[in-house]
Amino acid sequence: MKDIILGSHVSMTKPDYLLGSAQLAVSFGANTFMFYTGAPQNSIRTPIDKLKITEFRQYLKDHQMDIKNLVVHAPYIINLAVDDKQRHAIAIHILKTEVYRTKEIGCRYLVLHPGNTVGINREKAIQNIGKAINKINLINQNVTICLETMSGKGSEIGKNFAELKQIINLVENKHLIGVCLDTCHINDAGYDDKDIDQILKNFDEIIGLKYLKVIHLNDSKNKKGASKDRHENIGYGTIGFETLLKYVYDKRLIGIPKILETPWWKNKPLYKEEIEILKTKTWTNYRK
Known about the structure:
By secondary structure, the chain is an alpha/beta fold. Helices cover 36% and strands 14% of the residues.
């Protein structure tokens, strides 16, 4: 289990902030986790010096959790694809702030939804995203922005590997760009998740496996190609336990953080139970 990096999304709330997030992740049996540095729906942020970073880092050391395997998720409101100059500038500013906060906390991966076309063609939207990331990277030396694979809902950019590759081609500092592969999203976008060999071959041929930095490990409520983005608990969806297990243990993916973003059941998260069945490779009916 040493090389298997497995955890979940956890909340970050006062009064313990990052320390509380780490404690929650450990209670789930995780050795990594993902968090937002504030509410995902807005850009209001608690000052860095109040997040208990020193206590957080010590807690990670005490529990043998490498801070470099943790993942920050950028807020949903960022849309680098937008063509309106003012809104584009605001999106860049918000992401610059998240990059700074990620660096100050000590993490290296920041997951980002690429954006939505909003009245322009996809080629122009992709150009806008690439230009924006280059502007952000002028002040970024440490944080890898990981473009997330999207489900194809609405006007989302990133519904296939080719679109993400187009963005990566535009980024000047290639060591500061990566990809977060979401198993639910690629299923809903039309990829055959069950054929992991073909998925990884396709990814490697189009983007390159060296760019794969994070995996969001989610089952899906939807059939392949539904373009709906509705996550399901591990083993209860259309992707299935055996397939998702392959994403955890495939030798090509060892060392990549795998993050659960599955729904709560009866008003509580099931991350502890999901991590346990993935660790033991044994399915049990844990949703009771």
